[in-house]
């Protein structure tokens, strides 16, 4: 066969191969029976237009007698050789391109002389058919092998994708566990943490094995799925316990806050009560202290008469009245008087006394016997030992660690 008709494996379909096999079969049939086809009778040469040249006449073939049978296909009429062909006569395959072969001769299918050639043709066809069947079987096996390889590649890709998804799910579980890892101290029993650590180590081991293997198996992926499901269940239990403990702690914190608020309110109530008691005590104390009214300051001359000009005064007289007060304890009372001149200096001479934790000087003092009844016209004198300046003088009265009164008086020049 011609090398140009050889098939190119992998470059044509099954139909192309079958068509090529059929063409090979037809070509084999044509090559195996060339002697059976008679040489067609040459048609008269048709001259092309143009100047005519004399061509030698081709001798007519001898006609067979009428009684002679038709020529057999196995014995075609011999063709004259190149040397026998008349000069200027073209060969059969060099005829004018404008001639019509059908007009020159009519092909009559030769009848085989016997069944020998037919048997050879059948054997050839069977050989070609066998070759075609073998080629088809080979192509089908090759296609099946390619399909199996593609299916294996698809399965490996699917397993690799499952592995990536499981690895992402494992990473998400670890991130969730990390959020609660600092609350492990809340657990009374850390066995759940130990279980989680063991399951996590197993998952990491399986992931490492899958990463190191080129061909992954569905059994390994299934085992990894089961381990991650176990890890997920442990984490769920762990999170539930942590959340429950956080809820209980939150309730305790809420109760503690409520107790603190109650204590604060109680403290505020106590402070209010204490303040009220203090006010009541102060009121009671104030109710018990002596009251004074009608406090007055007068300058006296050397005759004991009232002096208008303070510079000529020889004494200063303080007068006041103690009204009735049943709340004041009865008994002897010492009333301390402080007189301050316009310059703010104390007019001394009356000793000292205690007041609110401090020692104060006095200008004069007066002792009385108080029985709960009003005492009017009480007088206290201070002797002038130096010339007094006109201006505003202040008079204060103290008794039993209380300031009974404080008045201001202006003494003229």
Would you kindly provide a written description of the structure presented here, covering whatever features stand out?
The protein has 413 residues and is an alpha+beta fold. Among the domains are: 88 residues; 119 residues, Immunoglobulin-like, CATH 2.60.40. 44% of the residues lie in helices and 17% in strands. It contains five helices and nine strands, in the order αααααβββββββββ. Strands 6-3-8-9 form a four-stranded antiparallel beta sheet, with no helix packed on it. Strands 1-2-7 form a three-stranded antiparallel beta sheet, with no helix packed on it. It has a two-stranded antiparallel sheet with strand order 4-5. Helix 1 packs antiparallel against helix 3, helix 3 packs parallel to helix 5 and helix 4 runs antiparallel to helix 5. It is rod-shaped, with a radius of gyration of 73 Å. The protein starts with 13 loop residues before the first helix and ends with a strand. The N terminus is likely disordered.
CATH class membership of the domain at 293-411: Mainly Beta
Overall structural class, as computed from helix and strand content, comes to alpha+beta
- Looking at the overall shape, the CATH architecture of the domain at 293-411 is Sandwich
What is the 3D shape? rod-shaped
Q: And the CATH topology of the domain at 293-411?
A: Immunoglobulin-like
Strand count, sense and barrel status of the largest sheet are: 4 strands, antiparallel
Report the average pLDDT across residues.
Answer: 75
**β-strand number:** 9
Radius of gyration: 73 Å
Low-confidence stretches: 1-9, 41-109
Write out the strand line-up for the largest beta sheet, numbering strands in chain order.
6-3-8-9
Total number of helical segments?
5
Percent strand: 15-25%
- Share in helix: 40-55%
Distance between the termini: 163 Å
H and E order: HHHHHEEEEEEEEE
């Amino acid at each position: 066969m011609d090398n140009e008709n050889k098939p190119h494996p992998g470059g044509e379909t099954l139909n192309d191969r079958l068509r090529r096999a059929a063409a090979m079969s037809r070509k084999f049939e044509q090559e195996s029976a060339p002697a059976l086809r008679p040489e067609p009778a040459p048609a008269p040469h048709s001259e092309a237009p143009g100047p005519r040249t004399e061509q030698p006449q081709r001798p007519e073939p001898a006609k067979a007698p009428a009684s002679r049978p038709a020529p057999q296909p196995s014995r075609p009429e011999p063709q004259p050789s190149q040397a026998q062909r008349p000069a200027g006569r073209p060969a059969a395959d060099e005829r004018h391109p404008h001639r019509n072969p059908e007009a020159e001769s009519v092909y009559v299918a030769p009848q085989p002389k016997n069944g020998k050639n037919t048997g050879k043709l059948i054997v050839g066809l069977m050989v070609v058919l066998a070759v075609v069947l073998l080629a088809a079987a080979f192509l089908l096996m090759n296609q099946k092998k390619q399909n199996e390889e593609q299916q294996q590649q698809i399965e490996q890709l699917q397993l690799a994708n499952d592995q990536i998804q499981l690895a992402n799910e494992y990473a998400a579980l670890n991130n969730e566990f990390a959020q609660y890892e600092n609350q492990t101290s809340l657990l009374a029993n850390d066995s759940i943490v130990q279980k989680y650590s063991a399951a996590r180590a197993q998952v990491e081991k399986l992931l490492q094995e899958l990463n190191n293997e080129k061909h992954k198996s569905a059994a390994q992926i299934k085992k990894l799925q089961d381990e991650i499901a176990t890890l997920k269940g442990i984490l769920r239990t762990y999170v539930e316990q942590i959340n429950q403990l956080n809820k209980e702690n939150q309730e305790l914190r809420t109760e503690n806050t409520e107790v603190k608020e109650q204590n604060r309110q109680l403290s505020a109530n106590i402070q209010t009560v204490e303040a009220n008691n203090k006010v009541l005590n102060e009121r009671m104390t104030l109710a018990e202290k002596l009251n004074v009214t009608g406090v007055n300051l007068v300058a006296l001359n050397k005759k004991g008469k009232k002096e208008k000009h303070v510079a000529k005064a020889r004494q200063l007289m303080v007068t006041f009245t103690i009204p009735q007060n049943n709340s004041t304890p009865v008994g002897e009372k010492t009333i301390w008087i402080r007189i301050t001149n316009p310059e703010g200096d104390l007019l001394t001479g009356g000793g000292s006394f205690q007041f609110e934790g401090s020692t104060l000087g006095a200008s004069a003092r007066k002792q009385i016997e108080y029985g709960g009844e009003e005492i009017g016209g009480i007088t206290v004198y201070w002797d002038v030992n130096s010339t007094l300046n006109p201006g505003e003088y202040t008079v204060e009265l103290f008794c039993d660690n209380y300031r009974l009164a404080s008045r201001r008086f202006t003494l003229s020049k």
